[in-house]
Amino acid sequence: RHHHHSAQRPPAPPPPGPPASSSTAAPAHRRHHHHSAQRPPAPPPPGPPASSSTAAPAHRPPRPLVSSMWATLRAITSSRLMFWWGRRAPAEARSSRHSYSREERGELHRTSYLLYLKNSDGKYISPLHDIPLHDEVDKALFNMVVEIPRWKNAKMEIATKMPLNPIKQDMKKGEVRYAANIFPYKGYIWNYGALPQTWEDPSHKDPNTNYCGDNDPIDVCEIGSKVCSYGDVIQVKVLGALALIDEGEMDWKIIAINQDDPDAQMFNDIDDVRRYKPGYLEATVNWFRLYKVPDGKPENQLGFNGEFKDREFALGVIMSTHQYWCSLIYNKTEGGDINCKNVSIRNSPFCCSHEEAKSLVLSAPEYVKPSPIPEEVNKWHFIKN
After folding, report:
1. For residues 329 and 340, what is the distance between their CA atoms, to the nearest angstrom?
2. Is the peptide bond prior to 184 cis by the omega test (within 30 degrees of 0)?
3. Is residue 202 a contact partner of residue 249, using CB atoms and an 8 Å limit?
4. pLDDT digits (tens, 9 = 90+) for 136-193
5. Is 197 within 8 Å of 132 (Cβ atoms)?
6. Contact residues for 224 (Cβ-Cβ < 8 A; gap 6+)
7. Could you tell me where the DSSP H helices lie in 102-165?
8. Distance between CA atoms of 318 and 238, rounded to whole angstroms?
């Protein structure tokens, strides 16, 4: 019929309504964002089927496929699929993670003890400043520096006031400190540590609690089954947060699980801890509330009446403390006695050479085999609620 235009039926008039502008003639894949407001497409005009000259180019995917592609892209942004993606990362991608090693100086459980970290090239680094906040393989995960393994009593912490921020035992009145055993607990009931490249700014008042930060990196309670070692760097999934008010300072506790834990895939938010580890969150609240009582101090206070906040809330807290750290490391805010010496933040005025970092470590006392811890550290304390 196409050879005889005079006999061809004239095309049907377009459906009533305003003429289509260039902005409304969007490709089909754009319209899938607002199905509820979209007018149903007008039926095709009567007449013979379109010839091959008017068909869509072969490279354009059919509409159902485009819709499926956009739905998949939107779903990838959800946290659960991000975790799923991370759990299925190829082995070769996981092997690309930076590895860290440790070097001990001085004597464990003595004031001389210092634990320095080294990167995969064997160069000394700061665990506070030179380890990235996010895992380099899966950005949904966070790096965690383990300061205190589960069941240990020695109050180890990143020394924020020392160059390169080694891990050392906290001191009080010239003596190293230990956490008391409060029945029925023994030492710390999680692998306890910190997220690098975070800082709870003491000049910033938390909008949720009206308390200022405690001048430390943000703390993490890792609830997995493996007992870690001092100075381990592990990748964790953030699940929630607890607001501890420690002697008038804001001291957030992030609840997380080691990504390599056999049960990690079961945990994606704080409610999963209640479901699969019943009693753990209640024990966590009780521990933080009472752990200073054996030292003659009052019970700690908890924000939100001791209620745990969910993963989304915790991520917001983490990112705000990361922004405070950025201001700190680039000297945009007053950091007080925080030592910001690092070897990897090139635009930071505190960046030093690897040679300078090495000389700092080698100036510390050499490692000495540790003596036994005092027997009174094993004492159990019974406290009435």
Report:
1. 6
2. yes
3. yes
4. 889 999 999 999 999 999 999 999 999 999 999 999 989 999 999 999 999 999 999 9
5. yes
6. 191, 257, 258, 260, 261, 263, 264
7. none
8. 10
Residue 345: what residue type? I
Q: How far is CA 182 from CA 155, 179, 282, 284, in A?
A: 15, 9, 14, 12
> In 3-state terms, what secondary structure has residue 324?
helix
pTM as predicted: 0.77
Query: Measured between alpha carbons, how far is residue 238 from residues 205, 230, 309 in Å?
Result: 23, 21, 11
Which amino acid is present at 263?
A: D
Say how far apart CA 142 and CA 121 lie, in whole Å: 21
Query: 271: which 2 tokens?
Result: 């409610």
pLDDT in tens, 225-253: 999 999 999 999 999 999 999 999 999 99
Tens digits of per-residue pLDDT, 51-90?
444 444 444 444 443 344 444 344 434 444 444 444 444 4
Higher pLDDT, 208 or 71: 208
